[in-house]
Amino acid sequence: MSDTVLVEKRGPAQVITINRAHARNAVDPDTAAGLKTAFLTGEEDPDIAVHILTGAEGHFCAGADLKAVADGQRYERTGPMGPTWLSLTKPSIAAVEGHAVAGGLELAIMCDLRIAAQSAVFGVYCRRWGVPLIDGGTVRLPRLIGQSRAMDMILTGRPVDADEALSFGLANRVVPDGKALDAALKLAEQLAEFPQTCMRMDRASAVEQWGVPLDQALQREAELGRDSLRAGAAKGAGRFAGGKGRGGDFGDI
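RE: above sequence
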């Protein structure tokens, strides 16, 4: 890692923090490489169940560092912002304070879930500078919020506040300012309590089904489901039969 990417284990989660607050956490090439390494390292760590991505000092990420671009610094061709082209196997959460714009928006929508502080702002601000979305923005955003709303954001570059983002699914939760990371950590603990193979296989099926004919998607779901069954679904069913989970009590599951 580097001093521009901080990684900390917090219970079952690794918290990856973009640490360039002086540049509103804009990502230069070294930071992009550090982000990619952090996610890959967490994927290999058996003690990590969830990735959390956030930014330092009340900023999520302002996108690529345009000063670095203007200086001719070279980003990786595969995912210029770092991890955006990776195929992750573990759940990921973006804890968004402040602005998640341009490439910062692309980093946020790379994650499975987004927790936004009340004053958070999302947007395709790179529209103003002629910088394209090349870290998944034109692909993930329409899949996430629908073509019409995505086109509104992509074509106009307008800011979208937290409440509007929540209304159409760009944000999954809105919390008071300064509490996004705390909420992400709490959610990570909840996710880590579930049987991991089953959750990851269901996640994989939901990710892989895009662009696949229905019969193939259903076949893949069944294949992944068999892996989950072999990994211990019978044990979970036995806990339910023994009384756990009935009446909405899922404590210690």
